[in-house]
Specification:
Length: 607
């Protein structure tokens, strides 16, 4: 077993006057670039760069995110004490060297990785440029935190649990694909890891590409498609991912190219792109790869179902071993694979764990938070003082900003097209929105601070009536224009979960799928997946008072304590600013837009 890995050394004892340490966390030059700001042990701001750049999964240096975080915290560049990055090019050097010596990988792929590593090794120039200051103006100390350690920290240190088993599973980061250990107080110890070239994330990526979904982050489409198929080729999948002792797993490398030819990766200042990860042997086993615009057949559905089943077998094999070794009943989960909400929803059924925390941005964006909190607790030995029980850490816009936006778009909002009303009373505002939802209208809901992570959780959401069987088709026709097999999710009042779902547990970040009670499925067809499940978000009054009040008003009208909640966007990142929300409203066939206290409704005579 590897020893616990430290983040850095030689830390200065200085602190920002009156506030303790200010730590900037960064995920840079990788998909889902992001930044966060931790001040005196508490998260102040966290945001993904894609929301500002308007490019999904934007990769590069998160300059806009960094500037926002400092502005939200009221800090100047010289006020930052520490900068923590969730990558460490110096980690696992011996393993990298041995692999390169034995396999002699593609030189072009090696050059790409060395170029990326050089940027990661010293981000001071990039940070200084983003903040418009010379590098010498930054007095912060810089720390590289190993990728999976940052993942583990991103879940445990913000979970609120004093003690837990911690597990991270994803593609690859710093030559590792999975890591597990234990968290105790402010200590985080690593017990074991799975190294390159074996990876559950890489396996799922390869199948995703084979099924014709080539954009970065498309794995969630396979997860949704799996419910429509049967695991008829699971035996072949088991040949690809054989399970080993001590919770381990491996890949049958004949089905992949990442270890031999390498996978081309583009991480520079734009949408990340990955080359093919699967070999011809995968096509020999499962048939020809689907063309991106080709039909989705029963064969594709069965491949998706088999891949999901194989992932779950390996995942629960690992988790059960971790439980045996740690004897913990509490699990903190992170890494890109922790976005597999279907598997997450089965953890209580398939393992002995009884408490679960999955951080809102479980993937690489969340590594920024993990790196920052690892520096604070593992390195600086500062006490824990924060629990992330909501995801509202992005920019907010006031009524003045909204009025300016509406004024700038007044030609497109002419009286013949839209009616605008200001409703300052929150109860009346929520009742008005709930009435529109109950009437079958599609309502854009833009409130407060933007969500952190990939899910819209009630501040940048589109809300609809879950009782309408045709609502999925209406949404896809009018706004989303996405694959018909992808489900929509319910936001549920926390105290009503047990009445509607078979598992009663808090799910604030929409990262678990639970079976809907059989007798209730017919009442909420729009949020019931084909297999009878729902990817729920639980909502409490404390976490989001206004969104809670909206759902409460809908329950008063209909008897149903939930709304359909989907992200406020149209084949783009979730909207960030009022301008983007209004533009999305105007170019789609959304019926109502609630921007803060402003209600914009299309006129009956309008387009």
């Amino acid at each position: 077993m590897p020893k616990q890995k430290n983040s850095a050394a030689n830390v200065s004892p200085r602190t920002s006057s009156g506030y303790g340490y200010s730590i900037l966390g960064v995920n840079a030059y990788h998909g889902d670039s992001s930044a966060c700001l931790v001040r005196d042990g508490r998260l102040v701001a966290a945001v993904e760069e894609e929301r500002f750049r308007r490019v999904k999964h934007w990769a590069g240096f998160p300059a806009e995110s960094v500037r926002y975080c400092l502005k939200e915290a009221g800090l100047a560049p010289g006020d930052i004490d520490h900068v923590a990055l969730n990558r460490n090019p110096g980690a696992n050097l011996l393993k990298k060297a041995l692999f390169a010596f034995s396999k002699r990988p593609n030189l072009e792929a090696v050059r790409d990785r060395l170029k990326n590593a050089s940027k990661i090794k010293d981000i001071r120039p990039s940070l200084a440029a983003a903040l418009g200051v010379p590098p010498g103006a930054l007095r912060a100390q810089f720390h590289n935190v190993e990728h999976h350690r940052a993942h583990l920290a991103s879940a445990f240190f913000v979970s609120g649990f004093d003690s837990a088993a911690v597990v991270s599973v994803d593609g690859f980061g710093d030559f590792v694909s999975a890591m597990w250990g234990e968290g105790e107080g402010k200590d985080l110890s690593v017990r074991d890891e799975v190294c390159f070239p074996h990876s559950l994330g890489l396996f799922y990526l390869a199948v995703t590409q084979h099924l014709g979904f080539w954009r970065y982050g498309d794995e969630y489409k396979v997860m949704g498609l799996a419910a429509y198929g049967e695991p008829r080729v699971l035996d072949k999948m088991r040949e690809i991912v054989p399970l080993g002792k001590n919770g381990g797993f491996a890949l049958n490398l004949d089905y992949f190219v990442h270890h031999s030819e390498g996978v081309s990766m583009l991480w520079d200042e734009g949408e990340p792109k990955l080359g093919p990860a699967f070999s011809k042997k995968m096509e020999e086993a499962f048939g020809p790869a689907r063309e991106p615009d080709g039909p989705v057949t029963d064969r594709h559905k069965d491949i998706a179902a088999s891949a999901q089943a194989m992932y779950e077998e390996a995942f629960f094999h690992l988790l059960c071993h971790v439980h045996r070794e740690t004897k913990k009943e509490t699990l903190c989960l992170a890494g890109g694979c922790a976005m597999n909400s279907v598997a997450n929803g089965k953890i209580f059924e398939k393992t002995p764990f009884r408490k679960l925390y999955v951080q809102a941005a479980a993937g690489d964006a969340g590594g920024a938070i993990g790196a920052a909190f690892d520096v604070r607790h593992s390195l600086l030995k500062e006490p824990r003082a924060f629990k992330m029980d909501h995801a509202y850490w992005g920019p907010a816009y006031g009524e003045g900003d909204i009025r300016k936006t509406l004024e700038s778009k007044k030609e497109g909002l002419g009286a013949e097209r839209c009616r605008i009303e200001v409703i300052a009373d929150e109860a009346r505002l929520c009742r008005r929105a709930a009435e529109a939802v109950a009437a079958g209208k599609i309502v854009g809901w833009f409130q407060g601070r933007m969500e952190w992570g990939p899910r819209a959780l009630g501040n940048r959401s589109i809300v609809c009536d879950p009782r309408r069987a045709d609502m999925k088709d209406i949404l896809n026709l009018k706004i989303k224009r996405r694959e018909s097999f992808r489900p929509f999710a319910p936001s549920v009042l926390r105290e009503r979960v047990a009445d509607w779902f078979e598992t009663d547990y808090e799910v604030p970040f929409m990262l678990q799928v639970y079976p809907i009670r059989e007798e209730k499925r017919g009442e909420i067809p729009a949020v019931t997946h084909v297999n009878g499940s729902g990817r729920l978000q639980t909502v409490t009054r404390e976490q989001n008072p206004r969104y809670y009040r909206l759902i409460e008003a809908f329950e008063t009208l209909t008897g149903v304590p939930m709304v359909l909640n989907t992200s406020f966007n149209e084949n783009e990142p979730i909207v960030c600013r009022p301008e983007e929300a209004l533009d999305c409203f105007l170019r789609t066939r959304m019926d109502v837009l609630v921007l803060g206290n402003h209600v914009i409704e299309r006129s009956a005579s309008g387009p």
